[in-house]
Amino acid sequence: MSRVCREAERRVLRHLHGRKTRTQLPQIHAHIFRHHLHQSNQILSHFISVCGGLDRMGYANLVFHQTQNPNILMFNSMIKGYSLCGPSENSLLRFSEMKNRGIWPDEFTFAPLLKSCSGIGDDRIGKGVHGEVIVVGIEQFSSIRIGIVDLYTSFGRMEDAQKVFDEMLDRHVVVWNMMIRGFCKVGDLEMGLCLFRQMRARSVVSWNSMIAGLEQSGRDGEALELLREMWDHGFEPDDATVVTILPVCARLGAVDVGERIHSYAESSRLLRNFISVGNSLVDFYCKCGNLETAWRVFNGMPRKNVVSWNAMISGLTFNGKGQLGADLFEEMINKGVRPNDATFVGVLSCCAHAGLVERGRNFFSSMTVDHKLEPKLEHFGCMVDLLARNGCLEEAHDLLRTMPMRPNAVLWGSLLSAYRSTGKIKQAECVVKELIELEPWNSGNYVLLSNIYAEDRRWDEVEKVRALMKEKNIRKNPGQSMVLG
After folding, report:
1. 41 to each of 9, 32, 60, 80, 98, how far by Cα in Å?
2. What stretch of H or E contains 100?
3. Which of 28, 263, 327, 408 is found 20 to 30 A from 481 (Cα to Cα)?
4. Eight-state DSSP code of residue 69
């Protein structure tokens, strides 16, 4: 290769790994053509790798298909790019094409390929790729073993993951973390804890994985204790730790720990750098009933997303400030923030608790008209609750009858409570019959119907309900009372 060509290659590589690469890919590609490097596998493999890092796999694919004789470098770059950006299936297609061309894969082929198998969600494909690794004879490479452990833990196949893990002589902390997460994911927290205690060197991810596993299993006290142990060992929580532990603090009423985390999040700049940390603090203070601090955190956030607004709106509802929640929703819309499904659950709940019937109707209508969101079951539930709480019972009943999906027992139950509290026996009877049709196995519905008849002194109907329960072999649950004449 001439000195001019080598210099051209060096310039291309400098441009590819420069600060302005994202905006200059076409110019760099033109530079490659200008210097007749468009069939250089080495240069093009770098170009494709950069495309993968920038989520530009469409461009990478175009370059790849213009190459006459792509080698293993090119195929590996394509496989890795698709493992990062997706679709994961394309990694397997390139791998298949590579084998058809007679190109022998290496360890740099299989590490991203195994990652793609995890993304596809078919453990049989992953098992097949593991078999290919064994055939090629490269399973001794650390990156490959890590990929195989990651594959099996992602599918919850902990027995297979354990076999590979046990064969590893040099176990990197990353592999320990994968195993801990895997066991927590399948509900085997004791095994996860056992591995965690065996670790000689832990990372923040190790602590986070175990704390999250305990939190997700409802073992809040142990999660909080592990956080204290993490602090005692000199580890500083990161954004993931904060987001995981604050709901634990709220449920346990550990306000002092939550406030300490808040102070730490400010001093460590986690609050400034991660929106999720601010969102979690807003949620924490709202659930603890400290709206003043929740507002202060919310207003002080340098950046907000829709989750930030949702947390504050829902928090206001939770604390009986529905009017303020509805006002905040309107402020959000005026600022150009696009609401999502959760936003409307929050604001409709605000309206229900504050008795804002007309505003609730308008917000519900705006879902489809202004924001192109199709109301889901929970949105209809909020509307039924709003209307039933505020005496619009027939409107609530009409909404249940005309909604596009079948109402569930919770929605009918909300209307039933309103009918019974206002003494509308006939309507209540109709609703209970809907419940019986929806849940014919639920003895509570029959007891409700019987008691409605008893309240109206219709003893013959009471006896018919008892006979129907006997005929269908439905037993009254302990604690339920059926009024008899």
Report:
1. 12, 12, 13, 16, 14
2. helix 89-100
3. 408
4. S
